[in-house]
Amino acid sequence: MINNFLFTGVLSALWVFLWIRSYKKPEFHPKLSREELAYINSDSEEETDEKIPWIKLLPKRETWAFALTTITDGVWWFYLFWGAKFLAEQFGVDIKNIGLPFLVIFIMADAGSLLGGLASGALIKKGWSINKARKITLLVNAIIILPVAMVPVIGSKWLAVFLIGLGAAGHQSWSINGYTLVSDVFPKKATASVIGIGKMIGVAVAIVADIALGAVLDTANNSGYPGDKPFGTQWFNAGRVTKLTDRKFYYMIDTMGGQSGSPVWRFINGQRHAIGVHAYGGCPNSATRITKAVFDNMVAWKA
Questions:
Q1: Which of 99, 109, 122, 258 has the fewest CB atoms within 10 Å distance of its CB?
Q2: What is the pLDDT of residue 6?
Q3: What is the DSSP string of 197-209?
Q4: Alpha carbon of 33 to those of 23, 24, 26, 40: distances in Å?
Q5: What is 219-302's CATH number, 2.40.10.10, 3.90.950.20, 3.10.300.10, 3.40.50.720?
Q6: At what angle do helices 157-185 and 188-217 cross, to 10 degrees?
């Protein structure tokens, strides 16, 4: 596992080295001809050395219009953080060997990045206004993402992978066109600052969304007949899972005598799935996990 992290770290360092070695501003790039430089600058005013502070950019509606497009970053971070866990739980994919499904997803995402820019560019070449070309492309991207909502109810692993990849491609296409919007309406000196402001807001929204989702996924539910309540009445409660071991898990759910043996469950796709049997009081309380061995015992006892 350590070697994997070292390998990806070395690749990242190599990429940074190549970038620093090869990237230069167009005006100072030794391999750029005068004709190429003139072509690059042909659609914009000559750049000046004047700095544009954030205080001048923040009141601009265009700044916040771009920031609004970055709220969808939550989608991308959702795939990064929860994609592997979802495939493991839904389709039994070994999380240690999840390379091929994720390879497909990220190749599709890369394709979306390239095709999104090509699509809007092709529309502009056909005579469409920049405004119309960008917005129509963004609309198509938003529509492409919609089928991913079907993934939780699909029984085919590879169809689910394809739809997740399609959603990732739509998001990356959306994102790349969002970046281009900034250069369409702002001078060069403001482009990096506006993108920085927008992405800061997008990542902040993604962090809040992931924390909220994690809280939902960490919630366990319990029902039973507590001894301090009226006889024969069933009571429900829920709380956060705090610790997980091979045989038990712990949670912050108030229980009373009489509830031992009651089920602890989670909602998955709108249905209750028992994950443990409440058996231990204390703070936090805990349950015996329904592992395969425990489940097999239950089936044998029932027979």
A1: 99
A2: 81
A3: HHHHHHHHHHHHH
A4: 15, 13, 9, 11
A5: 2.40.10.10
A6: 150
Question: What per-residue confidence (pLDDT) applies to 213?
Answer: 73
Give residue 176's identity as a one-letter amino acid code: I
Residue-level pLDDT at 217:
66
> Got the DSSP string for 78-138?
HHHHHHHHHHHHHH---GGG-HHHHHHHHHHHHHHHHHHHHHHHHHHHTT--HHHHHHHHH
Helix (H, G, I), strand (E, B) or coil at 157: helix
Query: What digits encode the pLDDT tens for the residues 99-142?
Result: 788 889 989 999 999 998 899 989 998 999 988 998 899 999 99
SS3 at position 154: coil
pLDDT digits (tens, 9 = 90+) for 277-290: 888 877 788 888 88
d(CA 137, CA 121): 10
Structural domain 51-217, CATH architecture: Up-down Bundle (1.20)
Q: Which two tokens stand for residue 217?
A: 């996924």
Rounded to an integer, the average pLDDT of 79-93 is 79
- Count CB atoms within 10 A of the CB of residue 263: 17
